[in-house]
C-alpha cells in the first residue's frame, strides 16, 4: 500500500493552541486520551474547551482504558469524540454494547512475539483494529514491534498501525505488505514533550 492511501492519526493531543495549529494541517484523526494515569490525559474541563475548535474534516478519537460503557457513552453524549478507541482489556461485550449505541469502535491489541491473532475473532464487532507495542504502559511507549507478524497474519479488518512510528519509517511503511493497513497512528516520536507535538514533524508526516 502506498503512503498517500493511508489515513493519518495523531494521538495524545492535549494543548489547546497546539491542537488549533495542528488542525490546519488536516490530519484525518486526532486522538484524545481519557485515561487518568496517562501523561497525555485530557480532563473533562479541558475537553469542553477543545471541542469549541473547528476541526473541519478531522475526526476526534476518544481513547479509553478499561472504562465503563456508561462513562464512554456519557463522553459521547457530551460531544467529546467521534470514534471510540478501546485501549485496555475490554471484553467483546463492551464493543458490542457500544456498537449497539451507534458508536464507531477501534479495538486495540498490544503485540509482542507471542501475540495470538486468534483473539481478533472475538472482536468482530469492532470497526477497526489497532496494533500497538506491548509494553509497561497501555500506549505511548515509543517502541516498535515486529511488523512481520502483521504481514504474515490473515487480518480481516482494516487496522491502524501504532507503536513508535517516526518520520524515518517512511520507506519501511511503503514496503509494508498488508492490504488491510488503513491508518498510521503517531504519538511520542512527534513530541516536544508529552501532549505537545512538534508542528514541523507533524507537517512532514502529513505532507508525505
Protein architecture, described:
- Helix content is 25%, strand content 23%.
- The protein is of the alpha/beta class and 208 residues long.
- It has one domain (3-207): TIM Barrel (Alpha-Beta Barrel), CATH 3.20.20.
- The strands form two sheets. Strands 1-2-3-4-5-6-7-8 form an eight-stranded parallel barrel.
- α5 links the parallel β6 (128-133) and β7.
- The longest helix has 9 residues, at 69-77.
- The protein starts with 6 loop residues before the first strand and ends with a helix.
- The relative contact order is 0.18.
- The model has no long low-confidence stretch (mean pLDDT 92).
Question: What is the H/E string?
Answer: EHEHEHEHEEHEHEEEH
Q: Proportion of β residues?
A: 15-25%
Helix % is 10-25%
Major sheet size, sense and barrel closure: 8 strands, parallel, barrel
Point out poorly predicted stretches. none
Number of H- or I-type helical stretches: 7
Query: What's the name of the CATH homologous superfamily?
Result: Aldolase class I
Look at the helices and sheets and give the structural class. alpha/beta
CATH architectural label: Alpha-Beta Barrel
Amino acid at each position: 500500500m502506498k503512503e498517500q492511501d493511508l489515513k493519518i492519526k495523531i494521538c495524545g493531543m492535549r494543548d489547546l493552541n497546539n491542537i488549533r495549529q495542528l488542525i490546519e494541517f488536516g490530519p484525518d484523526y486526532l486522538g484524545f486520551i481519557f485515561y487518568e494515569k496517562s501523561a497525555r490525559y485530557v480532563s473533562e474541563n479541558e475537553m469542553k474547551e477543545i471541542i469549541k475548535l473547528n476541526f473541519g474534516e478531522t475526526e476526534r478519537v476518544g481513547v479509553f482504558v478499561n472504562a465503563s460503557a456508561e462513562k464512554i457513552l456519557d463522553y459521547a453524549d457530551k460531544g467529546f469524540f467521534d470514534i471510540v478507541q478501546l485501549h485496555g482489556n475490554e471484553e467483546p461485550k463492551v464493543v458490542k454494547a457500544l456498537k449497539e449505541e451507534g458508536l464507531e469502535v477501534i479495538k486495540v491489541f498490544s503485540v509482542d512475539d507471542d501475540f495470538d491473532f486468534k483473539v481478533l475473532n472475538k472482536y468482530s464487532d469492532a470497526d477497526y483494529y489497532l496494533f500497538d507495542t506491548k509494553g509497561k504502559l497501555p500506549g505511548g511507549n515509543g517502541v516498535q514491534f515486529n511488523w512481520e507478524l502483521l504481514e504474515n497474519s490473515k487480518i480481516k479488518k482494516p487496522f491502524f498501525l501504532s507503536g513508535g512510528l517516526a518520520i524515518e519509517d517512511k520507506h519501511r511503511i511503503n514496503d509494508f505488505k498488508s492490504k488491510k493497513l488503513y491508518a498510521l497512528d503517531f504519538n511520542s516520536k512527534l513530541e516536544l514533550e508529552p501532549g505537545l507535538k512538534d508542528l514541523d514533524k507533524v507537517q512532514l508526516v502529513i505532507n508525505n
